[in-house]
Amino acid sequence: MNPLSIDKIYSMKAITLRNNKLAVSETTKPTIQDNEVLIKLNLAGVCSTDLEIVKGYVPNFNGILGHEFVGTVAETGENVPSSWQGKRVTATINIGCETCSVCVGEGSEHCPNRTVLGIINRDGIFAEYVAVPEANLVEIPADVPDKLAVFTEPLAAALRIREQLCVPPSRSVAVVGPGRLGMLVGWVLALSGNEVVMLGRREESLELAKKWGLKTDLTEHIEDNVFDFTVETTGNEAGLEHALRITRPRGTIVLKSTYAGPANVNLTKLVVAELNVIGSRCGPFEPAVRLLKTPKANEILDMVEGSYRLADGLAAFEKAAEPGVRKILLTP
Amino acid sequence: MNPLSIDKIYSMKAITLRNNKLAVSETTKPTIQDNEVLIKLNLAGVCSTDLEIVKGYVPNFNGILGHEFVGTVAETGENVPSSWQGKRVTATINIGCETCSVCVGEGSEHCPNRTVLGIINRDGIFAEYVAVPEANLVEIPADVPDKLAVFTEPLAAALRIREQLCVPPSRSVAVVGPGRLGMLVGWVLALSGNEVVMLGRREESLELAKKWGLKTDLTEHIEDNVFDFTVETTGNEAGLEHALRITRPRGTIVLKSTYAGPANVNLTKLVVAELNVIGSRCGPFEPAVRLLKTPKANEILDMVEGSYRLADGLAAFEKAAEPGVRKILLTP
In CATH, what number does A3-140+294-331 get? Predict the structure, then answer.
């Protein structure tokens, strides 16, 4: 296929949220800025954040959803080297102003004026085409197939924990919530030799963790004060209460999931036991791609529970929202 | 005075909380275990924790209140060197079992079976005499007068922050709450060259901070996302909400005060801005005593707003509970 041929297409299919209504829409193909490229979608993944946005987590989001993807560069802006054309890529999702002190000091992930693909003030990637700044592009090597490359973003989010904290391999680690992100967190933290215990509310939810050789248990069976590190991935109050309960004095809790609205939580243990609680969000893409090149990464494919066309986006979202369902993929 | 002469006294005055009722009581002089010493009180300090316990913060506390003090060793147990007799001392407040894995690994401050002077299952020091294990004793040097030595415990609690975190001198620091503990936190953090901004709700509450050369502001005047490190010392939800608001992305919040009951707090910022929130409690006594030997420590005396006899304990508690009042001292 000549990637330039797509210039002739002026409309495209996309999964949109407008006025809190999820729909599959025929919408205009994006036009690119001088610093951007146009990417043709190969494969996308539905994330819990997408489901939360549909539930109203980001007030006033209007546009195309989605931020986990792999695609092929179809067009390059004036200031972008044309050598990008035809390359398989994914993209980091935060677009900062690159001029404020936060961008300079902390990175665009924390820019107060940032846009975020499919999350804050910017169209996402559940569409046939998406426009992304060149600065956000990450090339996917030939030996990482699309079905693995689509996991780059959530795997990077899991890796973020290792960017923020030293988690010594001899220390005990619990992951509360064996869901989409929780499983990747457990997978990543076990890579360095940590004994990782995946905790869930139902035995069935722990099957995949067992298959991967991780330890498992029901959260409610865990005694108080036993783990050095606890990663909370459920985003609900009960999960946070458990994390506070099962972490030992002077232990660390990583919050990987946002809490919609105020959380009504007893913080006494946090202070009395001198816990360290750290928020954790987007992570580094290059290390994630390196991991996706390893043979072990094929395990991650076990998380895929269905693939839908964009045209069947509503069914895809419905399936992804079912309890216990992990990764749902979308194709153009 | 011959310290042994007190053996003849069998009753003593103490400030007690029994069945949630604060009282000045005539009670039995403590008898000491083989590993303990009997200390005659010289001077004690009323802490916010004492006021919280009276309000019910520690369910079922029954006994003598108080944990900030300096006294003189009057009697030594069978297994304690008699060389302690007549020495001026204070004492760390946590008594662990010294055998469990928490005591061995993390210290007695976190022992699940610990008692705490005047806080958990153990009589405190608002009394003419107090029994304390030798292991908890810290000698007060001759050049630290009682009126400064009585600040050892809260100063150690402030110093605890420097035990837990690297707070680089070039980084901005805010202390929310210019109260008893907040002032000592600000005083300690400014020692290494940090610019410390003390934040309060009322202009009057900031006078002492100004006198000490600290920067000050009204909490509500502070813009969002400006401080690298924020120490929350108010123990109320509003203080915590402000701390979350004014700390920059990837910044650190230290919680120095417990929250009675569940806190209803929006934790979204914690996750999205990847904040680090760390609980902080009891600190190291020896460094606190070293600081109390420095000329600058005399500033701390500015915090004293009254001195009462134990017999006038109810009036002392009433005064200490008045808004804006800092240190109230107690004499035998």
Answer: 3.90.180.10
- Dihedral sign, Cα of residue B50, residue B54, residue B55, residue B56: positive
Contact between A157 and A183 (Cβ < 8 Å): no
| Residue A149 to residue B185: CA distance in whole angstroms | 49
Instruction: Identify the residue whose tokens are 């330890």.
Output: A215
The residues pairing with B216 across neighbouring beta strands, listed in sequence order, are B198
Interface of A with B (CB under 8 A): 102, 106, 109-110, 112, 164, 225, 240, 248-250, 255-268, 270-281
Token pair listed for A59:
């007030």
Residue B116 CA to residue A285 CA, distance in Å, equals 48
Q: Which amino acid is at B22?
A: L
pLDDT in single tens digits along all 332 residues of chain A: 445 555 556 899 999 999 999 999 999 999 999 999 999 999 999 999 999 999 988 788 999 999 999 999 999 999 999 999 999 999 999 999 989 988 988 889 999 999 999 999 999 999 999 999 999 999 999 999 999 999 999 999 999 999 999 999 999 999 999 999 999 999 999 999 999 999 999 999 999 999 999 999 999 999 999 999 999 999 889 999 999 999 999 999 999 987 767 778 888 899 999 999 999 999 999 999 999 999 999 999 999 999 999 999 999 999 999 999 999 999 99
* CATH code of the region B159-279: 3.40.50.720
Q: Is A32 strand, coil or helix?
A: coil
H or E segment and range at residue B105: helix B101-106
Distances (CA, A) of A278 to B24, B254, B260: 45, 12, 22
- The C-alpha atoms of residue B60 and residue A106 are separated, in whole angstroms, by 47
**Domain spans, chain B:** 3-140+294-331, 159-279
Q: What is the pTM of this model?
A: 0.91
Of A195, A198, A196, A189, the closest CA to residue A166 belongs to A189
Q: Write out the residues of chain B at the interface with chain A, using a CB-CB cutoff of 8 A.
A: 102, 106, 109-110, 112, 164, 225, 240, 248-250, 255-268, 270-281
CA distance A33 to A149: 26
CA geometry: angle A286, A320, A331, nearest 5 deg: 60
Whole-angstrom Cα distance, residue B326 to residue B264? 28
Distance CA B282, CA B108 (A): 11
Q: Does the distance separating the beta carbons of A263 and B266 come in below 8 Å? A: yes
Buried b (16+ CB within 10 A) or exposed e, B263-292: bebebbbbbebbbbbbbbbbbbbebbbebb
CA distance to partner chain A, nearest, from residue B270 (Å):
5
In chain B, pLDDT over 90 holds for what percent of residues?
88
Model ipTM? 0.87
CA proximity to A253, closest of A237, A274, A231: A231
CB within 8 Å: A271 and B263:
no
The answer to whether the beta carbons of residues B72 and B40 sit under 8 Å apart is yes
CA distance, residue B276 to nearest chain A CA (Å): 4
Give the whole-angstrom CA distance, residue B244 versus residue A279. Answer: 12
Q: Please give, rounded to a whole number of angstroms, the shortest distance from the CA of A60 to a CA of chain B.
A: 17
Q: Is there a contact between B197 and B172 (Cβ–Cβ < 8 Å)?
A: yes
d(CA A63, CA A21) in angstroms, rounded, equals 10
